[in-house]
Write a structure and sequence with these properties.
The protein contains 16 helices and 4 strands.
Length: 411
């Protein structure tokens, strides 16, 4: 067997099996006994419902993973990439346009495969447990907007990458790196003003106690804001959230209307203090820097494989092209990506603890963040007893009980 084909198939199947094993361990770790910490937040029915939600999610993820992996393996073995490449080349355009047609065809095929799972997850699974507020019209419009944005942004990035790899020789990877970073940072800068409002309505937070306390906290801690907004998260889900968008002078606080409805003013300030902590402690800068470094390394490694005949032979390709090489390298890179994601999650969990500590110290009252975490866990039907291996493999945040224990140590 072609060594590249063996590595790719082994990686795809191995990643799928690893996910199934970790999820099954997570299922077995579910405890029938409600942790004492949550005795005032969860009643027996809600705790039972949270475990049923976890079990249903595990079954759904296993099925989705198995189907997508199986279809990908079959597509590779049957020479699907070659068929798609010949179809794209049949239009008679140059390398860049042909590459864009190739990626568009691949994206459409991928979306056709994922669509039934997306529909089931939204309108059956989330609906069953009372989370879904999305109607079919909103779902379709979101899809169309996603296609439009993906076509524009993805088209720009892919056109540049294809152009540089076809025209700039040995240092093509460097040009691709600089170009991609420039576009990505530009998107983050304009996203709060031009992109995110396409999906949600951003309403300036009304004057009142909540706005005053948020502004007071931000001013006290030297955190500059361009605005505080409430977004209509309830349009799609009952789950609550809050986040910052943009950077520099474009930083915005976005509060889901569901969050405002479910938490007290002091609890919301504590949640935002946690998010401010990420900014003040440099977590966002570090994340962006690591992403930039990783992108450069990926492009450098990619440059060594784009013309590799053995790699293309693994996919039964009749001709070598940059656009197909990008996909093949991404598949070959799968095991490295899995390992890097584990280390990224470890770093992210450490950052979450640090942001929790920041919130506890700057608000002077860790109990408010503890209370908020409990309420959010209850409203989102969170799994309170995840398996350590699943946490290590998948969690970007520490388990809520671990976070609460850490916060209680701040008193």
């Amino acid at each position: 067997m072609n060594i590249y084909l063996f590595i790719i198939l082994f990686s795809l199947i191995g990643t799928c099996l690893l996910g199934i094993i970790s999820r099954q361990l997570n299922r077995k770790a579910l405890s029938p006994d409600l942790p004492d910490e949550f005795s005032e937040t969860f009643d027996a029915d809600k705790y039972r419902k949270s475990q049923e939600y976890t079990k249903a999610g595990i079954g759904f993820e296993n099925l989705s993973s198995i189907c997508s992996t199986l279809l990908t393996v079959v597509f590779i073995i049957l020479g699907g990439f070659n068929t798609l490449d010949l179809w794209a080349a049949g239009f008679g355009y140059g390398e860049i346009v042909t590459g864009l047609i190739f990626f568009a065809g691949l994206a459409i095929l991928s979306d056709i495969i994922s669509l039934p799972f997306s529909l089931y997850g939204t309108f059956v699974l989330e609906e069953k447990f009372g989370f879904n507020k999305t109607d079919l019209k909103t779902f379709i419009i979101d899809k169309l907007k996603g296609y439009l944005l993906g076509g524009i942004i993805g088209g720009i990035i892919l056109s540049g990458v294809l152009l540089f790899f076809n025209a700039t020789g040995a240092f093509a990877w460097l040009w691709c790196w600089v170009f991609t970073v420039f576009i990505t940072l530009g998107i983050q800068y304009i996203a709060p003003t031009w992109i995110l409002p396409l999906f949600n309505k951003f309403t300036p937070l009304e004057d009142g106690e909540l706005k005053e306390k948020i502004e007071q906290f931000a001013a006290t801690n030297g955190f500059e804001l361009s605005g505080i907004y409430m977004i209509d998260g309830s349009k799609r889900s009952t789950k609550a959230n809050a986040y910052f968008t943009g950077f520099g002078k474009k930083k915005r606080i976005a509060l889901f209307d569901t969050l405002i409805e479910s938490l007290s003013t002091d609890e919301i300030v504590a949640v935002l203090a946690h998010e401010v902590g990420h900014c003040k402690l440099g977590h966002i800068r570090k994340m962006i820097l690591m992403s930039i470094i990783n992108t450069g390394i990926v492009f450098l490694l990619m440059s060594f494989f784009l013309g590799n005949r053995e790699l293309f032979a693994a996919f039964k390709m009749e001709q070598i092209s940059v656009h197909a090489g990008l996909i093949f390298f991404a598949l070959l890179y799968t095991p490295v990506s899995v390992v890097l994601s584990i280390f990224s999650n470890i770093r992210s969990r450490r950052h979450e603890f640090e942001a929790d500590d920041f919130a506890a110290q700057t608000t002077g009252d860790p109990s408010m963040l503890i209370s908020a975490l409990k309420k959010l866990s209850a409203s989102n039907l969170s799994n309170l007893t995840p398996h350590p291996f699943y946490v290590w493999l998948e969690y970007s945040h520490p388990p809520v009980l671990t976070r609460i224990k850490n916060l209680r140590a701040q008193k």
